[in-house]
Write the structure tokens for this entry.
Amino acid sequence: MISIVILGTGNVAEHLFDVFSDHKEICVRQVWGRNRSHLSYFRDRAAISEDSSELLAADLYIIAVSDDAIPEVARTLIDKKGLVVHTSGSVPLNALVNNDKRGVFYPLQSFSKGREIDFKSVPICIEAENKEDLELLLQLARSISDDVREISSDQRKSLHLAAVFVNNFTNHLFQIANEICEEQRLPFGILLPLVRETVQKLDQLVPFDAQTGPAKRNDQETIGIHLHQLKNKNYKDIYALLSKSISEKYGQKL
Amino acid sequence: MISIVILGTGNVAEHLFDVFSDHKEICVRQVWGRNRSHLSYFRDRAAISEDSSELLAADLYIIAVSDDAIPEVARTLIDKKGLVVHTSGSVPLNALVNNDKRGVFYPLQSFSKGREIDFKSVPICIEAENKEDLELLLQLARSISDDVREISSDQRKSLHLAAVFVNNFTNHLFQIANEICEEQRLPFGILLPLVRETVQKLDQLVPFDAQTGPAKRNDQETIGIHLHQLKNKNYKDIYALLSKSISEKYGQKL
């Protein structure tokens, strides 16, 4: 049995709480948070508290708060005997000052309220300073995921950057495409089979080999027509810059 | 029975040929192309020809060649009685000069050599000038796809632009993420569950509501760290521009 206190009440806290609660060898003893209404989500299944002086003893304290609040929350755990970890992609291990038992438990996924996640396929990136703590994190991570990896702070920082490209920026491209469709009274759904194929191709091809389109062919005529179609200044700039980057990648100069 | 001659030997020609060949009410009589080695793909299942004076009679001529070659290929069909269509996203219907029976048969999908496509879910965008021709295209399209739509030349032009964003540009973001992973000796596959979730979210949310990340939050500290991590000038510019576009979309100025 691994006993856990979760600090934080956001999306990551909720999703971790739910998956841990389904597991008979994990006991979430308590959830701490500053926001009483958010705490109510956890109320029937664990102790809840807004007061950091009331924190219970546990094997593991999981800090799942916004990046800039991590150091402050970590300070409230200085006298605890358990291992203290955060769940952030971009915060280094050593941001957990004053804790000598410290680590990271970073699930590489985008969590949204109300969307269920199959944790079995979520890569869990763990890091710890000593072997015993690493073993505990390995055991916990493997109990919920089939993809557990030991990842250094530097590697994790790069993963977080890469995640911004494949998730945040990709979604913005979808948003632009959505607006282009709306202008012509076309439903965005008409693009979804293409979107799915763009991703499914990656099972077979690396992105370099999967690239197609006017920029790769350096098809200036089509690029010119497309730029002319775009009225929004940002979207026009994005089209031009991404086309330039693709063309140069394939040895051509726009 | 609908009789068809396909003009062209590229990816679209191959994929259409394969799906038509599986259908008992469609007969691909002939495939024409300039490239003898590409023609060999079709050899055992239809007549093949490199000579446009040898084209057979058919209900429908499908021009599946590169955009700039469409007018020239269309001219070789002036004396044919059948309907002449092209398969391009960006070429207007009236580019098929001198044909009074003309139309468009545009499958909105990215076709790669060797990758099988489930045509049932591929949106087929059709256009024709007269009702009888439209009926023929409807019948043909519905025999291979569950998603057939009448789309004007203007709408198709916008769809093609939107497709560049969700396919070509999205793939380039994957390529950048791949390079970031390689620098840290991490496999790109670690990002795939996140990539899949980015797309699966669209079944439930519009892109505007699915957006997350530092740019939406206007988290200048994280943005600054990420920009510092990127060494490639194009990738740095792409990060800055996409972040600016996202922040402005959510009412913030970077």
Notes: Chain B has ten helices and eight strands.
